[in-house]
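Section 4.2 – Deliverable D4.2 (structural model, holo form)

The reporting period included a commitment to supply a predicted holo structure for the target in complex with magnesium ion. Inputs used:
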Amino acid sequence: MKLFLAILLGVSPITASAQGVPPIPWAPHDSTRPPPPVVRPAPGPAGPWSPPSDAIVLFGGTDLSSWRAPRDSGAARWRVVDGAVEVVPGTGDIESRQGFGDCQLHIEWMAPSPRSGEGQEPGNSGVYLMGRYEVQVLDSYQNQTYADGMAAAMYGQYPPLVNASRPPGEWQTYDIVFRHPGFDARGRLRTPAYVTVIHNGVLVQDHVPLTGPTAHGRRPPYEAHPDRLPLRLQDHGQRVRFRNIWIRNLEGP
Ligand code: MG
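Output (structure tokens):
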């Protein structure tokens, strides 16, 4: 029936959705998109989470040797303080020296307290899988912004299922499962990237198919890229801290 209607209307059911990914029925950053309900996470972990034996520790609390500045591949210029790495505004993003594709990532972050600013400002940073696909970092505790730009949103694409944010000044966790997109020999998309995110122990992204790289105000199409690329953390001018960053490489499918 669907196919018949599509033929009747002269639209292909295949091209109707960009590159096989179902269209998102909201424009990027639509302010009328309803905010997800608030969920109160369990009290934070008492201490740092220990990485499992097969994890690659990207930041264990002391040094930034696994990181570099993407601009010039020189040393990462953020500062290490109290077992955490803190954004030094204006120094730019940092990225892992190693590339990753399919992976499980654990990362903890804390927005500055007291809060300054509102909306997209307080505690803004980002976890960019493959340097392209951003899980938003933002102080979204009792702080309203467009739904697809709040904490744990896939920026500009999917709001989190619920708002599991902790207040600024408290550590928060992201546990992320990422599947990289696949491209054929001619660079056409074969399978989109998929992301699952658990925020403070609460499922907030459930295997969502990305429409392409994340961006502000638009949804650019995929461009073919290697199966492994560096993980990037965003300098958005806010002194956000990160700690206990570890990652596990996953096999296919
Ligand atoms: Mg951001």
